């Protein structure tokens, strides 16, 4: 697997070339998934995950926010 360069660039934004590659792979997978080589599928997954970095739901670190019933039931914060 190709993890060497992927981990160092993981949090960086996609370059224009990578974004184009992501779109080409997405269309190829949509048109005929069986015709796409597994290494290209892996590349798509890598680019897709990098494109989502920093987007989405925020993590909740305070357990009282995540589980308000625990705070109410025992009065102690975890």
What's the SSE pattern? HHHHH
- Strand segment tally: 0
Q: Detail the poorly predicted runs.
A: 1-11
Radius of gyration using CA atoms only: 20 Å
Number of domains: 1
Give a short account of the largest sheet.
none
The end-to-end span amounts to 40 Å
How would you concisely characterize the structure shown here?
By secondary structure, the chain is mostly helical. It has helices spanning 4-8, 16-31, 38-52, 63-66, 68-74. It has one domain (4-74).
Explain what this protein looks like in three dimensions.
There is one protein chain. The protein is mostly helical and 78 residues long. It has one domain (4-74). The chain is built from 5 helices and no strands. It is elongated.
How are the elements arranged and paired?
Elements: H1 4-8, H2 16-31, H3 38-52, H4 63-66, H5 68-74
Annotation keywords:
78 residues, mainly alpha, 60% helix, elongated, disordered N terminus
